[in-house]
Every structure is written in structure tokens, then in C-alpha cells.
Amino acid sequence: MEKIRGDRVKEYMLRTKNVERKFEMPDGDVFYALKNININIPKGKLTILRGKSGSGKTTLMNLLGALDTPSDGEIYFSDSELTKLSEEEIVALRREKIGFVFQSVALIPIMSAYENVEYALRLAGINEKRDERVKECLKMVGLLGRMNHMPQEMSGGEQQRVAIARAIAHKPDLIFADEPTAELDSNTGLQVVKIFKELVEKEGVTIVMTTHDVGLMSVGDVVYELEDGEIISEK
């Protein structure tokens, strides 16, 4: 990783220094899921973590999103070192500054598209102009006309777009998307990535997306490729 001057640190949403994640096996051996990870995630860009299944990309995303802690090394969110924050500070960071889009979508099945997005605002403690923000987010993903539909009444691509609207509702600085196109056909997957690009341009949000799809590498502003827990290329 290039050495960063102090005046350039503010360009990055996330930075890692020699991050490792290891697990002790029942026989006493140590398995390294991640080794010597040094990356810089620029603000207001779409960064892709690409790799085959088992390459370590989801493990890395979990560390960057403060869902897990590294065995060694440092992770910085803006100017804050994640590994030195208290549990309360981590929870507040995830609630206020970060949004997540999961491969499994994870919409609440008994809630409509509108209610799923509104619920995210309730969890974030946002009460002011909630109805306006919900409709704004659903419009951004092209689903305002479907806001009263239940998840089971929607296609996989539509459900994923609702999940994106839910993730951006509280205006996070950073969104993590874990294999958001894995269960979608190529055309629908490209539509989802197009939405991410528009969010980067219009909302100024930083997005980190994992994928195993070689075809999506060209849409990222920055692409890190992982193999066996290590970064093998940066583009």
C-alpha cells in the first residue's frame, strides 16, 4: 500500500493497515482468512471487492463494517480507529453512518415496500419528514409505484431495490453490499449496479460491494481482487 500523506487521509472513508483475521482450528492449527490487508476506500466512490467463494471478500467486508474485529492490524473509519471504539460507539456508527445490503435481501415479509423502508428510519430514530424520505428513496430505485406491494409480490430484482432504498433511507455515509447481484440474472444485476452508480453520483455516498462476477469489475471506481485471503491486485 502506498504511504499516504497526512493531507490525503481525508480522501478516504476507510483505511486498513496490515489487517489479519485468523481462526484457531480444533486440531490447534491456525487458519488465516485474511492476511496483510492494506487498502484505501475513497470517499464518494464505488469500490468493488472481487474474488471467488472463499477468497476472503465477505470476511473483509464484515471487518470494514464493524460486524467483526480483526485478529491483528488497524481499521480506520474516517479518522476513527474501529478497533479502539467501545461497543456503544460501534453500534451508533452502524446505526447512523452505515447501511447494509445483503445477498439474501432480508426484507420483512409481513411489511410492504414502504413499511420496510420506513422501519429502517424508525430504527435510526428519524421522525422528521419520514414519509417524504421513504417515498424519495423508493423513487430513486424506481419503485414508488410499487410501494404498497409486499415482498412476495415482487421479483428478486425489485426486492433487492427495496433493500437498497432501505439501506440509504437514513442517509448513511457508507453502504456495504454483499454479493447483491448473485441471485439475479445478468440484466437485472446490471440494473442494480447502475442504481449504485447513481447513488454515488447523486447522494455522494461511498459504496463497497463484494462480487465474484468478472463482468462487474469495469463498473467500479476502484477494484481490489482477493485470493486466499490476500489482495492480489488493485485497479
Question: How would you portray this structure in words?
Answer:
- The protein has a single domain, classed as P-loop containing nucleotide triphosphate hydrolases (Rossmann fold).
- The chain is 31% helix and 27% strand.
- It has helices at 57-64, 87-97, 113-123, 130-140, 156-168, 186-203; strands at residues 12-24, 30-37, 40-42, 46-50, 72-77, 80-81, 98-101, 174-178, 206-211, 222-227, 230-234.
- A 6-stranded mixed beta sheet has the order 7-8-9-4-10-11, sandwiched between helices. Strands 1, 2, 3, 5 and 6 form a 5-stranded antiparallel beta sheet that branches.
- Helix 3 (113-123) crosses helix 4, helix 3 runs parallel beside helix 5 and helix 4 packs across helix 5 (156-168).
- Residues 1-6 have low confidence and may be disordered.
Radius of gyration: 18 Å
Spatial gap, N to C terminus: 13 Å
Helix fraction, binned, reads 25-40%
CATH architectural designation = 3-Layer(aba) Sandwich
Shape: globular
Counting DSSP E segments of at least 2 residues, the number of strands comes to 11
CATH topology: Rossmann fold
Helix and strand succession? EEEEHEEHEHHHEHEEE
What is the CATH level 1 assignment?
Alpha Beta
Report the biggest beta sheet as strand number plus sense, adding barrel if it closes.
6 strands, mixed
In DSSP terms (H or I, runs of 4 or more residues), the helix count works out at 6
The proportion of residues in beta strands is: 25-35%
Question: Uncertain regions: pLDDT < 50 for 5+ in a row?
Answer: 1-6
What average pLDDT do the residues reach? 91
Spatial arrangement of strands, main beta sheet: 7-8-9-4-10-11
* Helix/strand/pairing category: alpha/beta
How many structural domains are formed by the residues? 1
